[in-house]
Amino acid sequence: MKIGKILAAAVMSLLTIGFTEAQDLKFAHINSQQFLAELDEYKAANTAMQAEATKLEEQVKTMAAELQKKYQEYVEQRDSLPELIRATKEKELQDTQERIQNFQQLAQQSLQQKEQQLLAPIIEKYQKALQAVGAANGFTYIFDTTSQVILYQSEQSIDAAPLVKVEMSKQK
To answer: Cα separations (Å) of 117 from 30, 43, 49, 120, 137?
Structure first.
């Protein structure tokens, strides 16, 4: 009988300790996508990316127009050209088309590198700010609501965005 009472008391104390610890958990949330999109640094990086993309698109358009012009000239002269010249012009058209495709691939890689170069410092600063806010406020977790995976968000969950914004302004 005494063992049963002792066991019951032990279980109750463990449950009480567990419940008390569970109540100490602090959660926060932030919409990373929205937060970053509102940062002046992020906007400037996106503007620079758009400018770079526009330059590259213009170059592709110029190259495509050149190819179209050469192709049109070839079509107009095709029947009157000797076989060797016709084959040479067809090879030139094919080479030009391959150069355009190669340029497009290189341009895409260049844009990705530029994006990495511009956004990496912003993301790093953001992550440091999240870490500092989490530690300073005793948050157990800071959830990112961008993903739409969070099924429930309590009123007790703290929006960390204002805190992160203040922390990021300290890092300048």
So the answer is: 24, 14, 10, 6, 31
SS3 assignment, position 52: helix
Using the 8-state DSSP alphabet, how is residue 78 labeled?
A: G
The answer to pTM > 0.90 is no
Output phi, psi for 26, to 5 deg. Answer: -120, 130
Asked whether residue 78 is domain-assigned, the answer is yes
> What pLDDT was estimated at residue 16?
54
Segment 26-48, tens digit of pLDDT: 888 899 999 999 999 999 999 99
Tokens, residue 83: 């076989």
Question: How does strand 158-159 pair with strand 141-144?
Answer: unpaired
Burial zone of 28 (CB within 10 Å; 0-12 exposed, 13-18 middle, 19+ buried): buried
Which of 170, 162, 167, 132 shows the shortest CA–CA distance to 34? Answer: 162
* Collapsed DSSP state (helix, strand, coil) of residue 160: coil
- 148 token code pair: 């739409």
* 14 assigned to some structural domain: no
Phi, psi torsion values for 8, nearest 5 degrees: -65, -40
Domain count along the chain: 1
